[in-house]
Amino acid sequence: MYQGIRYTLLLIVLALLQSLVFNQVQISVYFNPLIYVAFVMLLPMRTQPIIVLMCGLLVGVLMDVTMGLAGVNTIASLLTAYLRPLMLRLVMGRDNAVEGGIPAPMQVGVGKFISYASVFTLVQSVVFFALEAMTLRYAHLIAIKVVLNTAVTVALVMAVAAFFAPKNYNNSFLD
């Protein structure tokens, strides 16, 4: 019950941050961090795949409605939600990804978390910006957007994870 409330609040805060701050601030056409990816990224590692997919669908549809996009966020979020178990196994190791806990810096280590967040955000950004452009004619510009936004989004997700993840959680695979 408590976890459900925490994740609901996380979704609301991330949706508001994305909609009211990051979508409104135009520093450059190449800069639009996708902070909402932290919602699916920070789900506990033991979360059932169908629940992860439903969370990906929920956050994708919510962001499409607030951003006025026709399915771009939904497609990108569903793909990353689908690939999340694979990303966890690749970065954390097969046994450690099943151990449980929240994949956050304090639980899995900063290096592993940055690797996981980078891969997760990179996949999300490639799909999002490629679908947003709807052409590969501007592949070099899409690549610039992907690299910049992945770097900034990973930094923002680190900050979100630092606030969201419990500080006293001890995961056995860190020993």
Keywords:
175 residues, Arp2/3 complex 21 kDa subunit ARPC3, mainly alpha, disordered C terminus
Number of beta strands: 0
In whole angstroms, the N-to-C terminal distance is: 29 Å
Compute the number of structural domains: 1
- CA gyration radius, whole angstroms: 16 Å
Looking at CATH, which topology would you report?
Arp2/3 complex 21 kDa subunit ARPC3
Low-confidence stretches: 169-175
Structural class: mainly alpha
Written as H for each helix and E for each strand, in order along the chain, the element string is HHHHHHHH
In which range does the helix fraction lie? Answer: over 70%
Shape by Cα distribution: globular
| Largest β sheet strand count, sense and barrel closure | none
Which percent band covers the strand fraction? Answer: under 5%
- Please report the first level of CATH classification, the CATH class: Mainly Alpha
The CATH architecture assignment turns out to be Orthogonal Bundle
Mean pLDDT: 87
User: Number of helical runs?
Assistant: 8
